[in-house]
Input
Amino acid sequence: MAEVLVVVEATREFGVKKVTLEMLTLARGLGTPSAVVLGGAGAADALSAKLGEYGAEKIYAAESEEIDGHLVAPKATVLAELVNRVQPAAVLLASAQEGKEIAARLAVKLDNGILTDVVGLDADGTATQVAFAGSTIVKSKVTKGLPLVTVRPNSVTPTPAAATPAVEQLTVAVTDTDKLAKVVERVAEQKGSRPELTEAGIVVSGGRGVGNADNFKLVEELADLLGGAVGASRAAVDSGYYPHQFQVGQTGKTVSPQLYVALGISGAIQHRAGMQTSKTIVAVNKDGEAPIFELADYGVVGDLFKIVPQAAEEIRKRK
Amino acid sequence: MNIVVLVKQVPDSGADRNLRADDNTVDRGSANNVINEMDEYAIEEALKIKEAHGGEVTILTMGPDRATESIRKALSMGPDAAVHVLDDALHGSCAVATSKVLAAALGQLGADLVICGAESTDGRVQVMPHMLAERLGVAALTGARKLTVDGGTLTVERQTEEGYEVVTASTPAVVSVWDTINEPRYPSFKGIMAAKKKPVKTLSLADLGVAPTEVGFEGATSAVVEHTRRPPRSGGAKITDEGEGGVKLVEFLATEKFV
Output
């Protein structure tokens, strides 16, 4: 069976991201998964055990300061060379900012079609996408070149399939043009050890109804009790209650968790665009007519400042 | 500094949107078409740079006839001129082909800086800035929440999931911006009147030296096979809190095995 290249998404702090395991799972339906690690020195070592656990038969490692110290372009160059050499059956990347950007450059380099925000992938390369704020399901195909797709987190359940991957170091040969955008600093702003927003199985979000930045502690407390991530509506972000990287909606992140808890969020279309493919939706809002209740599997009309602390207390009791 | 801002006309994301039944493209005929929201932030950023450093701001749009409305709207915010890539053969173009056309137009315009929104609200594909940078052989500083211009050096704070990265490059470059970067101005009455007289140049594929076979359905590198409407979600139980709302909420979560 032909190789399927899976470009690994990982963080320094948490290692291999869940979307990578989802991609390895999807890749097994198309061929033999090979993981591609693009990063700084020693990047692959820390990740190989996990990648093998989910079926990576091979790991291609491109480790270099040139990759780590520049934005995206060197990664695309290394990947393009690898694709030309191994002629894979498909290339999978994460449908997040960087994955899409690498894929974009790869598509141009190879004059190859690209499909983003894919939530399912058939053996023949037909991809399923969800468009227009979750209202339309689209089946698409790359018609020129190989299936080059970016996979949206929380699309499939990762299933282990033990393999013992052989690691092959790639030679990194990048051009001066690839080194035009220099990364001079990386600043972490993530608070605590909560799961990453787009990957979390549970997301607890606050909106304008939370009232101020300090009150977001309530949202965080409930998220922590449920083991979830914290999100925020655009209204809450625009009001300065919570940082923008946690914004869920049309101009923020799209999430698709098992459980989405909306606290003090009216459910404007801008917000619904980013969360309405969640499996179960729960809402607390003082306005019984708020559109969020049209989506919610369970809604409580009332004061979130009474309901949320009571719910938190009840969860503690049950633990 | 000569700045080109990419503006895309999209169906209003606040209204119902569809793909066309006949050719699977975005239905623009029945939609209320507006400037892609993120592009207004790109225009604002360009105008701020012009105000601080001088130069010209040009709008670049590829789209059908009716995209003219969005071009005039963009000009009413303050840019100097616009270029409209207009050609019937473009209908059905994929992202890869679109980038080829826009890169050809940018090649003619010779901008120091190209600014665009991080993504459009219709496709949300997010690939255009890097596709253009790849084709033009220039730097791409993408996902900016802050942009600083110091002579020919650009520095951005790039929003990431963990926080942000500080990334620098020299012009010429492509920069894409999120809606956290600024607060777009509203067009003034004077701006709206002035926009009517600003030059809008139309370029065809022939003007750009791109063959019709490289774009549209014929040149597309991907295709929509089918599309269906997802059944809308329906609301479930809704209770009014009478003192036990929090407990009842947790009971529901427990039945769903979340607690």
